[in-house]
Amino acid sequence: MDSGKVRVAVIGCGQIADAHLGEVRKIRDAEAVAVCDHYPELAEQAGARFGVPWAYTDVARMLTEARPDVVHVTTPPHSHAPLALQALAAGVHVYVEKPFTVTVAEADEVFAAADRHGRLVCVGHDHLFDPCWAELQAAVRRGELGRVVHIDSVMGYDLSGPFGRVLSGDPDHWVHRLPGGLFQNNISHAVYKVTDFLPDDRPEVWATWFGPPGRLPTELRVMFRGADATANILFSSQARPVRRVAQVYGTRACVEVDLDGQTLRWTRPAGMPGPFGKIQRPWRHLAEAARSWGRNLWRFARSDLHYFAGMNRLFREFYRAVHAGGPSPTPPRDVRRVTVIMDDVFEACRRAAGGGK
Amino acid sequence: MTALVTGGTGFLGRHVVAELLRRGATVRCVLRPSSSEEELRAVAAAHRPDRLEVVRGNLTRPDFCDRAAAGCDTVYHVAAELNGATAVLFLGNVVSTRILADAAARAGVRRFVLVSSLGVYGTTAVPTGGVLDETCPLDPAPHLRDPYSYSKVAQEKVTWAAYHAGRLPLVVVRPGVIYGPGRDCLTARVGLRLGKLMVVMGGRQPMPYTHVANCARAVVLAGEVAGVEGRAFNVVDDELPTGRDLARRYRAEVGGIRRVTVPRWAIGPLSGLCEWYHRRSRGQLPAVLTRYKSQAMWRPMRFPNTRAKEALGWQPEIGLEAGLRETLAVLRRPPAGI
Hints:
The complex is a heterodimer. By secondary structure, chain A is of the alpha/beta class. Chain A is built from 12 helices and 13 strands. Chain A folds into 2 domains: 137 residues, NAD(P)-binding Rossmann-like Domain (Rossmann fold, 3-Layer(aba) Sandwich), CATH 3.40.50; 161 residues, Dihydrodipicolinate Reductase, domain 2 (2-Layer Sandwich). In chain A, strand 11 and strand 12 form a beta hairpin. Chain B has 11 helices and 12 strands. Chain B has a 7-stranded parallel sheet, with helices on both faces. A 3-stranded mixed sheet of chain B has the order 8-9-12. Chain B has a two-stranded parallel ribbon with strand order 7-10. Chain B is globular.
């Protein structure tokens, strides 16, 4: 940080590295100083496109020569823990893409190393930092929902999309070697939205996965029961449109958060009796839709509609914490809880499929 | 002769396999683990099915490439990722090519034919209306181009490095836009397709098209003709369509599109505007048009094919009219099952 800017290095130059490098470039107090990949061609293309001065194929050499303050680990999940440990041992703060680690044991090892070396670990739970989610959290804090009793977290996936196409065309793809397969690589986003309102360390889990006969599972359904609230996760590769939506039910109102549409849609008890209530509710939705439309139009005019807005805010908060020595914006306890719950989900799926442990 | 063909199930690859079988070669096709070989078998059935061998694997695995290249005289590297993120294109087009080229060198093949692209050239030095031929340099700033062209430039560089190191008997074929039955002919060279709207860029400049069968013949000749190692060949047909004619004909014979033309003088300012907005909005909209890309793509240039004709003895046997007629006829046909 000699120049006052956080020096960032990215390890793993696959598709998601583009998002990281693109968002780092937007942050005035940060600069990408190095990229690293097993394949030199991948490192070089990322460096050339994002104006990063150094491209490496050797992590140790990169850590020594480029001297980053923060390393972003955007490699396949099997290598997250070893790379994070290597960076922490070199005194570098670490941002790890989701899923944090493959197992809970690995997660514990990384957090222990972070404590030992006095460095921060941040995990790519970026939807929690999306402007819409922040608005939801603020509304909950103000008590507008009352006590949260249930969360529905919906996540769609497009197997013919840029990444889905790659993994469905390659039976040897690393995604298929994860214990939770396709889901392990993706459902962190759905799970941490649930755990944001379900405080239990280990809620009860019922889960099942399935897919076309003879093929790998592509659909996942999960139900959680905590001490005070319940939750569902719907992960679907078939439902269209592909959505990133959560519905949060409180004792006073419920709200649907649509990250793709960047809207919040409230449903409150009708203030009018009988049939008048049936007129009042669509009217409220109409007025709310008009406000959302106007707001998104204004945000578009201000160039404020970005797919990775949450990631950008999370990076900023993490770099601020690195700079000021504050806690990580993704608390270790929350990250660990997500990892534990994901393991429980996959175990429940295997049990439901008759696979046992 | 035993030829190793990658991308044999693809649009060009199937024609290359057919041409090789027709000429009596034994063909070993490399397929991805998930690719169907049904169409390939149908192609072979029309010629010599007993001379087709299929091996399945991943070209980023050196041990697989060694096994695939063993005992082959010629490698025709036709496989290419056409779409996707830059990283995917680099993995599929650059990394795999380096690994395959190394395996081919170890196997001591007589010839390695790389199917590259006419898009690899840097066109800034070519004046408007000037000649784009094999003497033009590779694009010096390919990262400013579309991800596909960028990956093809990088792909060529890794093979040329092996050639200059004396390890690879390389011949490069650089086809223009390959068209023919089974592929849409309204490509990015014509303009931008926005749903049913075809935005024709310029529209009057001849576009470097080549019929898939003509192109396949050039590729096969590049593996057969003696004494052409270390050379590159542009493959473009004699008669070239313009974007305006193609879009007009498509609309009349296939339908389903509306055509809007951006005049040539407006392409530069429009591209500049797109670039400016992309930067100003910090990427809220992608930079679909940039001046650098537009210059390479839609500026009038001439595309001679003299070198391929003279050195390879190649002739584009299928003319534009015949080629377009069969292409549009297939596009007109309703999809199977309807």
